[in-house]
Amino acid sequence: xxxxxxxxxxxxxxxxxxxxxxxxxxxxxxxxxxxxxxxxxxxxxxxxxxxxxxxxxxxxxxxxxxxxxxxxxxxxxxxxxxxxxxxxxxxxxxxxxxxxxxxxxxxxxxxxxxxxxxxxxxxxxxxxxxxxxxxxxxxxxxxxxxxxxxxxxxxxxxxxxxxxxxxxxxxxxxxxxxxxxxxxxxxxxxxxxxxxxxxxxxxxxxxxxxxxxxxxxxxxxxxxxxxxxxxxxxxxxxxxxxxxxxxxxxxxxxxxxxxxxxxxxxxxxxxxxxxxxxxxxxxxxxxxxxxxxxxxxxxxxxxxxxxxxxxxxxxxxxxxxxxxxxxxxxxxxxxxxxxxxxxxxxxxxxxxxxxxxxxxxxxxxxxxxxxxxxxxxxxxxxxxxxxxxxxxxxxxxxxxxxxxxxxxxxxxxxxxxxxxxxxxxxxxxxxxxxxxxxxxxxxxxxxxxxxxxxxxxxxxxxxxxxxxxxxxxxxxxxxxxxxxxxxxxxxxxxxxxxxxxxxxxxxxxxxxxxxxxxxxxxxxxxxxxxxxxxxxxxxxxxxxxxxxxxxxxxxxxxxxxxxxxxxxxxxxxxxxxxxxxxxxxxxxxxxxxxxxxxxxxxxxxxxxxxxxxxxxxxxxxxxxxxxxxxxxxxxxxxxxxxxxxxxxxxxxxxxxxxxxxxxxxxxxxxxxxxxxxxxxxxxxxxxxxxxxxxxxxxxxxxxxxxxxxxxxxxxxxxxxxxxxxxxxxxxxxxxxxxxxxxxxxxxxxxxxxxxxxxxxxxxxxxxxxxxxxxxxxxxxxxxxxxxxxxxxxxxxxxxxxxxxxxxxxxxxxxxxxxxxxxxxxxxxxxxxxxxxxxxxxxxxxxxxxxxxxxxxxxxxxxxxxxxxxxxxxxxxxxxxxxxxxxxxxxxxxxxxxxxxxxxxxxxxxxxxxxxxxxxxxxxxxxxxxxxxxxxxxxxxxxxxxxxxxxxxxxxxxxxxxxxxxxxxxxxxxxxxxxxxxxxxxxxxxxxxxxxxxxxxxxxxxxxxxxxxxxxxxxxxxxxxxxxxxxxxxxxxxxxxxxxxxxxxxxxxxxxxxxxxxxxxxxxxxxxxxxxxxxxxxxxxxxxxxxxxxxxxxxxxxxxxxxxxxxxxxxxxxxxxxxxxxxxxxxxxxxxxxxxxxxxxxxxxxxxxxxxxxxxxxxxxxxxxxxxxxxxxxxxxxxxxxxxxxxxxxxxxxxxxxxxxxxxxxxxxxxxxxxxxxxxxxxxxxxxxxxxxxxxxxxxxxxxxxxxxxxxxxxxxxxxxxxxxxxxxxxxxxxxxxxxxxxxxxxxxxxxxxxxxxxxxxxxxxxxxxxxxxxxxxxxxxxxxxxxxxxxxxxxxxxxxxxxxxxxxxxxxxxxxxxxxxxxxxxxxxxxxxxxxxxxxxxxxxxxxxxxxxxxxxxxxxxxxxxxxxxxxxxxxxxxxxxxxxxxxxxxxxxxxxxxxxxxxxxxxxxxxxxxxxxxxxxxxxxxxxxxxxxxxxxxxxxxxx
Length: 1489
Known about the structure:
- By secondary structure, the protein is α/β, with parallel strands linked by helices.
- It has 46 helices and 61 strands.
- The strands form 16 sheets. It has a 9-stranded mixed sheet, sandwiched between helices. A 7-stranded mixed sheet has the order 37-36-45-44-46-47-48, sandwiched between helices. A 5-stranded mixed sheet has the order 1-61-60-59-58, with helices on both faces.
- The model is unreliable at 1-13, 53-95, 125-183 and 201-215 (pLDDT under 50).
């Protein structure tokens, strides 16, 4: 490894063995996380210093890499084609060479670490190269890299002999290695790669915390003691030059217009171009004046509603004009001013769903706009309603649209003259601005400010009368409006307006117009300069010598400097003088803040600063001398405006003045700024009326300042430098980063050919109390999967290197799908909104939560174990009683004579056949709701006799032989069960294989038959054919089936004698079930346990021969089997049997039967409840019409082996309340392998109670009761009442000592109907003893208990039970085998899954499991596949926020992929095996870094 890191450079020098040894030790320290990457590199460099001649000032780890020819792709990144082209014509947006070189060097520093590439299903790919990508195979279980703890190996409870393994004769494709990792899988090697990329040590640990409640403390970033601090003096207020006094300066802008319109009516004011670049119309000052007058007259006098004028002075009017029609806009703008109306220019809405359109509507509404002015052509293009009127856009007020083309305007009356007043403090116009959060505000500009701003611009730019100006910007707002519509009229200038559409067709158009009109001034953005560079080769004859000022409106952007440099580089030879380029800084609130003056106007020479990016992130200015890699090069934006004062204040909190070397927000005081946010007093005060104060707290001026939203400082020569915008500021763990800087770094990553340069958005989202950086880019359609992934990983590395900050999520979306801002660019807030809502639909996602999230709570260290004795003493001292509870005492409830008589169920059936032969025991319903078959006591007895004869004669079985019963749910299954008992055989009920799905269902049947050592299979003729079919042979070895007998037509023979067991402890039947962890476990039930189980249920549910109960459960194992096959025989009640499978064709079958037979007690499973809730949600009215009435039901019990699913039971109760179902009826039962029925609500006793516990305390194995609705609260419902004869105690999972009331531990149970042990192929005695014959380590050490393997707690309630005692409630939290040990804490999968399902509407189901300490989340996507990648970030976010866990892998699959067993439980381990063996056919797999 050492040699590999150093590349070939080390190979050349033989190293002494002791150095090699030290190097190996270092490697180990690094991989274990005992040393950081930086520390490792330092020590390594020291060791190797003597053997490698150092290149001056280069990091040794870097130089070794660069020696290797072509070793790093970063150096190879400059491709041949690029070198061959002339250096001038680089197609890079806004790029600085410094930056590109820095990025290349940064990338070279990274060894090209292979990151696991996400996998995509073919249908999601445009074209993919996943198939060709096979990561290196590596199968050792990697170390625990997520916690830094020793992996916690020994399970509390050993696994049951795993028969999840593969019985003989199975396909070996899923055979596992010893550590449970399937061999030969692409998935596991990708996870291996992921773990390797995670081995880097985290950033240094942070010491401080803030309390996020009691034990899980999120780390809070402490300031680094070595971080740079500002050291300069406090900066005072800076004053600009005074505004010059001009003798004939007009008293208002309208006065200027009137003057030029009447005295210079032929002078050109504005020339509009079409998309070919032809001049279509030139508006003269005379025309502008006369048409504005006409419009003002029409607006005030000709528009009425109910004979009242529609508008009165001071009303706001929307101006809706396309970018291609500056003439009409200008007329409308000045027409409104003349009519004393307030124009609100907005963008043309194109569709009802424009990005940000709703917010514009909100602005119009709050401004009280009722009228919109537009042109004929524009009005025709707007979307229309059926009536032909313009539609009302989403969130907009009702508007009247008025077209201002000439024919719609009236000639002013002779006696009508507008009042051209002096400029006042009244509002002149409102400019809209969209904030970082996406809300749109209107900034009011008064007549006085408008005039003062024109005056200041005229002076700063040295505008003179009749100059020509080319304007490429949007004339509706900001610099385009200030220069091209307002100041130009002030000075009777001629503006050539270049529409955006023309720029797109011909990026050189503005330069050609400057040339042909000999324009003196041009107003552009960096983008326009960049675009013209791409196209300039076609134009040899352009000359820019006429320009005296090239105003760069976005000169404050980090990429502006490189555009200016590159542009000058190319066009200097065509007459462009360097001093002509004038960057400026402006903001909607403060208007123009600073502008560079040409040298003939006395401006100082331009400045440039190379600043350390790291210091900037702490708000400190340091000229960078040695680093060279992470620097920001900025240009000055000139001096502040004439007549203005400026200061720099701290960004957060009170506006204290900054020190000279500190970055702050620039504030301006002048007569030429905006005055307020329309209608928003609170934020107006904060922004437009800031009072900067000195360190001592003294105000610096009696005048309020306006905050500009620009971050910067004042440099030498009083030049202003801007390093970012408040809107793009992202504060990540205490350091500030600028979105634009991060974009610039991404743009410098070569090759750029996979994404569009101008379509990159960077923003931050809050996750777990900190901002996280998200970068979204549009991918070119021809980029391959691998290219994009490569580019993404390099962008991550570049940003990490240059900004020392991690990117949380990098997403690529298909071309042209990001929401657009009106004139190109990306609508950032809308993009962020879509990201958070899961509506971005990316085609590639890379998330790096492992590197970014450094404020997780510390992993929990296991405390040294407290001895069980001291725990008891502790509980006693605390006044806690031992958590122990029991059901009613059986011996007092029933005469023991009957109990003795009913000891063997075979005897009971015979007795019933004699005493009540025709009493009906069973009714089986089919899907139509009609009775398919019935059985009375005598019928059942006779059928059982026939089966017994067949077993002995045809099957030649002996007493004690095992028999597998493979039947669909029905009376046959029950009859054959008793037939086996009559013959002295041991029955095992087995679910028949599914004919359409033999490959997965038949192996389970085979496995149970083999593991249970069955000598014979009893079944129907149809299933017998299936078991021996060709299709079956493909799934299992059919030659090894034992004898198969069909019981369809058996001879009517009398049984000589019914077998009678010699002792009640003899085996009665075996109960086989696959646990949710995928383990097949069979338990042994003795005759004594069987009758005790029936007796308990009989007593709890008050069952007698006169009762009817309805059962909608599978009859193959657990309590479902007992209720189908045992209880009716014992208690004599009639069971109405509803096979759950029949609900697939008739959802209301079970509930209709309950209503029809007026059943008081009914049982179902969660899957049945879910089918009813989903399938009948909308049909309760139909059912009511059909007469379904559930008011007869006293108790409806869900048979379960898990924590009660409260949301499901509650929605079921709520839904069927309309059909008379009592709110108190629904409850759950609890059983497990060691005892199939521990709790069951029954008919008497208090209702089940619900408590709320703190989910975070549960992770620490503690119960903390909280109020409903408090954060992190989790509702738990009691699992029914403890059955008669059952005792329960809560024991510590490790010490096995008893625990106190309301303490979380393992539920232990003691009862006469406990199973007597596991029945498995391997005689694992230790396991048996541990699970079935456990004793407490302290206290009552005599009682023999069975361990359930479930965590829970007992709580004494205020309620009283039937015997008058206080009622003890048992709450089941979850299975121990299922829990996930992560970060030293215990998580229950269901809690994480519940959070994930809430994250997005398209998540239908979710399952989680861990693999080598990585959390894997599998979600089923109900929706289109393009939504798949939206889920990755949402799932990661929600698990971080609610569980403080980092998701390692997100797998998105189709609905129905997560396997669910008959009890409705998720088979997470099967899913895990399928995932690792690459069998899920996922839509997308994302490996989080």
